[in-house]
Amino acid sequence: MRRNIVLIGMMGAGKTAIGGELARRLRRPFSDTDAEIERAAAMTIPEIFARDGEEFFRARESEVLGRVLASGPGVVSTGGGAWLRPENRARIGEDGVSVWLDCDLETLWHRVRHRPTRPLLQTPDPRGTLERLLDERSPVYALADIRVPAQRGDSIEQTADRVLDAIRAHDPAILEGK
Ligand SMILES: Nc1ncnc2c1ncn2[C@@H]1O[C@H](COP(=O)(O)OP(=O)(O)OP(=O)(O)O)[C@@H](O)[C@H]1O
Ligand SMILES: O=C(O)C1=C[C@@H](O)[C@@H](O)[C@H](O)C1
Ligand SMILES: [Mg+2]
Q1: % of the chain beyond a pLDDT of 70
Q2: Which keywords, in A-to-Z order, does the entry hold (predicted)?
Q3: pLDDT digits (tens, 9 = 90+) for 34-59
Q4: What CATH number is attached to the domain comprising 53?
Q5: Which is the closest atom of ligand 1 to the Cα of 79?
Q6: CA-to-CA distance for 174 and 121, rounded, in angstroms?
Q7: Omega into 73 within 30° of 0, i.e. cis?
Q8: Residue nearest atom 4 of ligand 2, based on CA coordinates
Q9: What's the pLDDT tens digit per position in 1-25?
Q10: 167 domain residue, yes or no
Q11: Is residue 153 part of a domain?
């Protein structure tokens, strides 16, 4: 049963912000896998990357994702890399509808450039890194059930409206089911 609404996409696309808005509107529990990992580890994501490495983080991410999907129906915001692992995509497909918040490079860069909270962007050329990640990942994000454009001109409320319209068009039962 496709119970959960699962937001995927690049860092800065708005998964956390839009996910919280959707959960409030639908009165469903909201989970953010990055926040759950930080809470369980009592460390920030940059600290986990620095101490234990990306592979360790990815393993925790898959565990947390499985746990929050099983506890649905809810709204789940994933970390930007979660959808890239085939096992995570399969798990999301079993228990949720995947929604790609598709955001352009300029908007992403505008949102993430002043934040030191994304370890993958701690490179000599963070904008170039962001662009490369966007190019590499977009074909994989495109495997999501639903794509919603999420550009800078749109408010969080407008993008949340678009997500709900797109889910309704895809399968209205997702919004009705408890
Ligand atoms: N229209 C908008 N849609 C989404 N986010 C917006 C919008 N306008 C401003 N923002 C801000 O942009 C930032 C979006 O980042 P957010 O943390 O939601 O992205 P994310 O996809 O969860 O990234 P990550 O993968 O790093 O967790 C937030 O600070 C949010 O408040
Ligand atoms: O895009 C990514 O790979 C990441 C995005 C963030 O949400 C965090 O999950 C972490 O910084 C990695
Ligand atoms: Mg987030």
Answers
A1: 98
A2: Amino-acid biosynthesis, Aromatic amino acid biosynthesis, ATP-binding, Cytoplasm, Kinase, Magnesium, Metal-binding, Nucleotide-binding, Transferase
A3: 999 999 999 999 999 999 999 999 99
A4: 3.40.50.300
A5: 25
A6: 35
A7: yes
A8: 80
A9: 558 999 999 999 999 999 999 999 9
A10: no
A11: yes
Residue type at position 121:
L
Burial 78-101 (b: 16+ CB within 10 A, else e): bbbbbbbbeebbebbeebbbbbbb
Atom of ligand 2 nearest to the CA of 34: 9
In a domain, 173, yes or no: no
Q: Of the ligands numbered here, which is closest to the C-alpha atom of 84?
A: 2
Burial class (CB in 10 A: 0-12, 13-18, 19+), 128: exposed
Q: What domain range is 20 assigned to? A: 4-162
Please identify every residue whose CB atom is under 5 Å from ligand 3, which is an ion. 15-16
Cα 58 to averaged position of ligand 2 atoms, centre (Å): 10
Work out whether strand 75-77 and strand 4-8 pair parallel, antiparallel, or are unpaired: parallel
Q: Radius of gyration over alpha carbons of the chain, in Å?
A: 15
* ipTM of the complex as predicted: 0.96
